[in-house]
């Protein structure tokens, strides 16, 4: 069945950088969720895929015409420790398609069976984490944050053994590509410079074609990845997103968010927030993400050194200069997002302090991050009541609002226009943890997908008020907030 118009550049151009492999069929595939909007974007025949025959394809039981399943090799630093071989242990790249806009997109499975990279793992995925990845990716996309996305979720009719037995599932993941910092590290660690060169050329052609004509494409690539990733992490910070497992194998060259394992959005603003049960040192705490960004990009720079300059000392100096710029790139991206969130269209020197003081006020009064910005938009339009209701002690807010109003005097536009602009960047809805847990529990334990469907729908329009969905925008109980933990969910 020709469900996808495959054109597989990774398989074609990069032999030696992957292992051709096969899908492992599952017992009783059932299509639980299909992403029609994404299918349309990809130019797929949705009607054909939403059939029993389509479910066979999306489960990996029937290889679609043109697919060339491969397991990609990659390495990575996991919590700071280098693993020279990770790779697709429970994923397979089927191939690539060109979407409606001509962009090349990977079509990959997650949970499609063991590969040579699986080591002790079963190569499978559990339904809960797969649905979670679906929901998170869609939410990020709707928030305007680059992300891999899910095309489909199939329940396999098999049980996977985790802490507790769970329903197995296969996720179809769509990505700008699956090339990671860890992909470069894999070949750099083996000193396979020819493969490193081919991978670099490939990434330049696929993601940064405009850089190839320059005098120094490799260094320009490093700079461009630094820029995209700095912007991405700044966006995460602006919505309270905590990735949770920012290992170098979970950082893409394309600048898309990838790997929704233990990630979570924070409710009350606290920079020290860590949700992941395995992140005992808080390495990937909310406030550490910008530092980890720089650390991971330094690992990419190291991997690229032999291509940056044949003379090692010179290569190091040139790479170092780029990496030293990451902090500034992040700070600039962060500040420009904060300006927009505070309703500032122009730039003034005092803006950074205004934003930082706002945040430290949210922290000290344990205010909900999402609601604070959303209600600040209402305050810009003249209605301060909701915002005041978030603060136990009104006096610091009062003082801050006076500074903010004075700053707004220097801005163009009417209060109504400002309110409207702020509502476009300060979401009313993010995937709050207690709601994510509720909808996943209904789906996995009661076979009830309706709450999941509803939440996905609400999250697809995060910047609209949606009065009939008000309960999906409310924070959790303090008890839930104190005890919530996430798990990697492999
Ligand atoms: P992740 O935690 O998803 O970033 O995965 C880290 C590494 O573990 C990757 O090489 C995965 O392919 C591998 N892995 C994770 N879960 C499994 C599993 N169930 N079976 C085999 N390999 C796995
Ligand atoms: Mg990963």
Could you please describe the fold and organization of this structure?
This protein is 44% helix and 13% strand. With 490 residues, the protein is an alpha+beta fold. Among the domains are: 9-177, no CATH class; 182-334, no CATH class. The strands form 4 sheets. Strands 2, 6, 7, 8, 9 and 10 form a 6-stranded antiparallel sheet that branches. Strands 1-3 form a two-stranded antiparallel ribbon. The longest helix is centred in the middle third of the chain and has 23 residues, at 217-239. The two termini are 31 Å apart. The protein binds adenosine monophosphate and magnesium ion. Adenosine monophosphate (AMP) binds next to loops.
- Percent of residues in beta strands: 5-15%
Structural Rg: 23 Å
Tally of contiguous helical segments: 19
- Helix/strand-derived category reads alpha+beta
Helix content: 40-55%
- Identify the overall geometry: globular
Number of strands: 12
Taking the sheet with the most strands, its summary is: 6 strands, antiparallel
From the N-terminal CA to the C-terminal CA, the straight-line distance is 31 Å
Low-confidence stretches: none
User: What small molecules does this complex bind?
Assistant: adenosine monophosphate, magnesium ion
Q: Mean of residue pLDDT? A: 97
């Amino acid at each position: 069945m020709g469900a996808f118009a495959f054109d597989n550049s990774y398989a074609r151009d990069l032999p030696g950088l992957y292992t051709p492999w096969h899908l492992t069929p599952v017992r009783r595939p059932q299509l639980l969720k299909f992403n029609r909007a994404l299918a349309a974007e990809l130019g797929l025949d949705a009607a054909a895929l939403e059939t029993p025959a389509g479910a066979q394809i999306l489960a990996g039981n029937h290889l679609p015409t043109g697919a060339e399943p491969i397991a990609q090799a990659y390495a990575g630093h996991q919590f700071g420790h280098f693993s020279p071989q990770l790779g697709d242990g429970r994923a397979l790249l089927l191939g690539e398609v060109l979407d409606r806009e001509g962009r090349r997109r990977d079509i990959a499975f997650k949970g499609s069976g063991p590969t040579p990279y699986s080591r002790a793992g079963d190569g499978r995925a559990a339904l809960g984490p797969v649905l979670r990845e679906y929901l998170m990716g869609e939410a990020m996309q709707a928030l305007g944050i680059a992300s891999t996305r899910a095309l489909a979720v199939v329940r396999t009719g098999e049980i996977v053994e985790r802490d507790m037995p769970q329903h197995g599932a296969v996720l179809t993941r769509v990505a700008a590509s699956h090339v990671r910092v860890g992909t470069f590290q894999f070949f750099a660690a083996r000193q396979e410079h020819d493969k490193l060169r081919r991978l670099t050329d490939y990434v330049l052609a696929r993601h940064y074609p405009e850089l190839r004509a320059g005098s120094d494409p490799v260094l320009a690539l490093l700079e461009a990845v630094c820029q995209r990733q700095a912007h991405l992490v700044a966006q995460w910070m602006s919505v309270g997103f905590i990735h949770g497992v920012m290992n170098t194998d979970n950082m893409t060259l394309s600048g898309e968010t990838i790997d929704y394992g233990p990630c979570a959005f924070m409710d009350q603003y606290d920079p020290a927030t860590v949700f992941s049960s395995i992140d005992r040192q808080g390495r990937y705490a909310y406030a550490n993400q910008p530092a980890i960004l720089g650390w991971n990009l330094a690992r990419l720079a190291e991997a690229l050194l032999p291509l940056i300059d044949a003379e090692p000392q010179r290569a190091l100096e040139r790479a170092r200069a780029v990496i030293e710029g990451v902090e500034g790139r992040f700070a600039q991206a962060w500040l420009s997002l904060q300006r927009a969130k505070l309703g500032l269209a122009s730039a003034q020197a005092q803006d950074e302090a205004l934003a930082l003081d706002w945040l430290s006020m949210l922290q000290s009064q344990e205010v909900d991050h999402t609601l604070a910005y959303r209600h600040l938009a209402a305050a810009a339009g003249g209605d301060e009541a909701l915002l005041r209701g978030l603060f136990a002690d009104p006096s610091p807010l009062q003082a801050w609002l006076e500074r903010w109003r004075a700053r707004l005097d220097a801005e163009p536009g009417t209060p109504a226009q400002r309110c409207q602009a702020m509502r476009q960047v300060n979401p009313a809805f993010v995937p709050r943890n207690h709601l994510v847990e509720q909808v996943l529990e209904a789906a996995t334990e009661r076979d009830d997908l309706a709450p999941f469907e509803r939440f996905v729908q609400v999250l697809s329009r995060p910047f609209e008020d949606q009065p009939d969905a008000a309960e999906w925008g409310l924070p959790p109980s303090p008890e839930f907030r104190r005890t919530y933990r996430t798990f990697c969910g492999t």
